[in-house]
Amino acid sequence: MTTTTAAPSGTTPLAAPAFDGVLFFPVTPFDADGAPDHDLLAEHVASRLPFGPGGVFPACGTGEFHALSAGEAVDVVRTTVDTVAGRVPVIAGAGGPLGHAIELARGAEAAGADGLLLLPPYLVSGTTAGLVAWVEAVAAASDLPVIVYHRGTARYTADAITRLAANPKVVGFKDGTGDIGLAQEIVLAAEATGRDFAFFNGLLTAELSQGAYRGIGIPLYSSAAFAMIPELGALHYRAYTDGDEATRMTLLAEFYRPLVNLRDETPGFGVSLIKAGLRLRGLPVGSVRPPLVDPTPEQEARLGAILDRGLELAEQLGGGSGADAAASAEAVPAR
Asked: Which of 5, 20, 55, 88 has the largest count of CB atoms under 10 Å?
């Protein structure tokens, strides 16, 4: 799609970052004192880059955005930017109370991020005009392109997206509600403006719903599972883009569906299980911060079995690509 000048006179719309691969949402590791562990974060991010993520999204949902101070979030973004070193786009989380969101936007720009994922405002919700004004206020705080996240108190309509398309800094839309009909309306509204938007599916364990989202013009998806088992996450993305439905459906049935069943047992497990999985695989990323809770020993044992099956599938169906990617990584300390 050709970008046109749907922006105000005298401005040029910013381009959406070029995402070519699964969207990687890293966890935020915490040390024994509960502080962010930046050495572990760098190790976590670096060890996933050989598996081909299309972008890295630090201090977002999987990274416990809700539990980080503004200073902690900016430091997490800075560590990620330094680790990625320009190889793929880094999109930082921002959102919450307006002042907090503005502080995060400015901090992310100073840390070298390539864009912002704008999570919902804190607690309150207002009219469509109020939500549009909130987005524009955050966007005005930096020169970074902004992707809006549709969930919680941030309920965008087709009209809201049409209005936001007039802002040259708003370049993308992430759906986290699962309302396919509304998402289709929003895609059509954005396309009608002539702007070139990045659309992606941000539901929990998005792999399970991505087939439906592809059908309405949302080709990208975020993946928390990629953070703990990139071998399988990369295999799923390759099967998805290659049209290998046999492989994709096998992965959904034998890995992602059991993972979702476990995730749905306890609120917040969309994050907690990812950190537990990383710990099971030898990276001591610590516990989640309250109000989230860690899985019980019995749940963790079941997660371990799901991960084992996922690694088996990656070996059986991946043609050795996961092992090759890992072998080609820059030296990362073994644990």
From this structure: 55
Set 122, 156, 169, 174: catalytic member: 174
- Do the strands 146-150 and 170-175 form a parallel or antiparallel pair, or are they unpaired? parallel
pLDDT in tens, 123-138: 888 899 999 999 999 9
| Neighbouring residues of 242: CB distance < 8 A, sequence distance ≥ 6 | none
- Is there a contact between 91 and 126 (Cβ–Cβ < 8 Å)? no
Residue 146 token pair: 């902004």
Is 213 among the catalytic positions? no
Q: In angstroms, rounded to a whole number, what is the distance separating the alpha carbons of residues 301 and 279?
A: 12
User: Mind giving me the DSSP string for 123-167?
Assistant: S----HHHHHHHHHHHHTTSSS-EEEEEBTTB---HHHHHHHTTS
172 phi and psi, to 5 degrees? -160, 170
Active-site residue identified among 149, 156, 221, 240: 149
Residue 169: active-site member: no
pTM score of the predicted model: 0.92
- CA 61, distance to chain mean position in Å, is 7
